[in-house]
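Notes from the 1:1 (GR / supervisor)

We went over the backlog. Supervisor wanted to see one worked example end to end before approving the batch request, so GR pasted a single chain during the call. The sequence is below; no edits were made to it. Supervisor asked that the structure be written out right there so they could see what the output format looks like.
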Amino acid sequence: MNKSDFYAAETYFWSSISKQTYHPSAHAHCFLSPINTPFFNFLFLHQGATEKGLIKAADFFNQAQQSYITAIEESALSEALQQAIKQQALVFDCCTSAMGLILQQRAKLKFAPNADIRIEANTNLLNWKQPLASAFAIEGDAITSQYQAAHQSALDQHCQFYHFVLFAQQQAACALTLSIQGTVARLDDIGTQTKVQGKGYASRLIEEALCFAQTKGVTHCYLDASNQGLSIYQKLGFKSLFQYHSYLHQEAQ
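Structure output shown during the call:
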């Protein structure tokens, strides 16, 4: 389990759903999405990144007239980079944890049989997107439809994406995306309908996705966890690799 694999899985996922990418250095990576919101435009600054990489990346997004999120690995936050953050008028938003799991070493969770629950891994993205809109408080159908279209485009390009949906009493209750590149996988878009949160659906769905990944020859799985989801992933055996400090940029009007 190492950061290089995390970086590679991160790049594979975001480049697969982006309309344009830009890599101003080996440690700075920009992803410009086709979705009409800044929350899917990302600049990732990894260990070794400098203020020059941040400035070049900011120019890229500014030329595209798009706002974006900058996620900076904690070890990269040098004094010079922090000064560049201020100069770019980036506003601190939150911290997240980059996490990894060695699948052969995990303790598999056991769940009691429940006839009201079924899990599918399919290409019916209409079912997959339903829990995401509720879980991430996305207003209106436009953004989720654009995100669905980005994932459909990835599937059409034969990217190794698998979209899991947990149904409870015939309703799509929880969803996630599993992307696979060789022996490395990544989990994204883990979301549960707000009205049924706290029932263990996310843990059950992740467990199913991890078992599926193992059948595909995956040995390591990675994800980026919010503080709210940290305990779920720790229970599943994920370990923290490093923290991201995230900053928001709003395009000047």
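Supervisor's comment: Residues 142-156 form the longest helix (15 residues).
Batch request approved.
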